[in-house]
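Protocol step 4 of 5: obtain the predicted structure for the target chain.
Materials: sequence only (see below). No template structures provided, no constraints applied. The aim of this step is simply to have a reference model before the mutagenesis design in step 5. Sequence pasted as it appears in the construct record:
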Amino acid sequence: MMPHVGMQAKRCFIPLWALLFAILALSGCGGGDGESPYVSNPEMDQAVAGVRTSLENALGKTVPSLSVLIQTPEGVFFSGSSAPGSRRVSPDTYFRFASNTKNFTAAAILKMHQDGWLNYTDRIVDRIPGGDMAYVPEDPSWNIPYKNRVTIRQLLHHNAGVYDVANDPVPGCDGLPYVGWMEEQNPDHQFTSTELVEQNVIHNLSSFPPGTANYKYSNTGYTILGEIIARVYTHRSGGLKTYTDYLRDHVHGPTTPVPLNLHFPYLAADKRLPTPSVCGTVHAPEGEVIEMCADNMSANVAEGNGYGTMTHLNAYLRTLLKGQNILTAENVTKMMTDASAAQPRYALGTQHTDNLGYGHTGATHGYLSLMAYDPSVDVSVIVLLPLWDFSSGWESFMKCYQSMLCVGWDARAALGYPGRPQGAACPGG
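Step 4 output (structure tokens):
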């Protein structure tokens, strides 16, 4: 499926389930954690610049920047390579980290499980512990196919079969996903979880029966998880709460173990990034070059609405997966290893990539990013490439994506850690 470029909203839409299949296929190839100054390493600088230049040569166009942050037991290293005239990115530059948000959603679910607020193996129609309210609304607009069989765990695994109205065509939407079609009508539209889920009810859409030997990446499945988090928090607090409220109060905000200035906007009007920030660049199939500096993220709550900095992501993931943040060691292990048989490399909102570790990746309108922690060597890696190239369709886009993985591997190798797995495909060789 080729991406569609909406001329009004000026967006590119790609099937992220296909992207995740590609990511997981690629991943199958062959000091302390306190405040530390960022240090440079000449070999790492050369590796990052080399991957950016190779990608430029492979695409035949400018790659504005490519940046890598690595923390090892020896220190915290940062390297950024920028094209002449392009904005330089620092560890503290804000960007949209897209589907890395799914790891935060999974952490929130496991924290609620840990605190006895929910059971992540429950069905979504079961009652919230200690109350009479179901995990999801009981009105007809939430009666998706197989609703009575879907579990929270299956949603985390992308094994519930929930049809993805953000990435897959929906009837009546001119061959587009519902989200893209609606944004073409009104780029400022305020999306709701009920509105998104209801498309599967209206059109009786499902990818497969839940819990079968199938895997399909579903943003809409994580939309449901966001609604569950909001409802459970509302029940426990006694006042109306949102997904964003819970993350601020219990995952990353000022009263949490590792406070971080992260944001998860849910209002259509909340479009701007703080300063300093970097815009995403999109090369569309028709040759148009689009700069994405502001974006309506209300359709992406719990599945891709987060933004922050490379410093933030490193501190979050590294402390989380070392058991130094909100989850116990037992629940960290579940997050990394409790996977379905259908896709053993994707556990609870966490994917595994050889020689990078556990974490997630993100792709949204001009931004590609990666966060990973490798417990075998105590190394975390954050990568940011603010570029999508669809000028040659899927082929050119995957060159960008592969380069993001390759620069993580090469930066690790420059610091003396295992790099590219055998058989890894990298643009330019």
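Step 4 remarks: DSSP finds eleven helices and 14 strands in the chain. The chain has one domain: 4-414.
Proceed to step 5.
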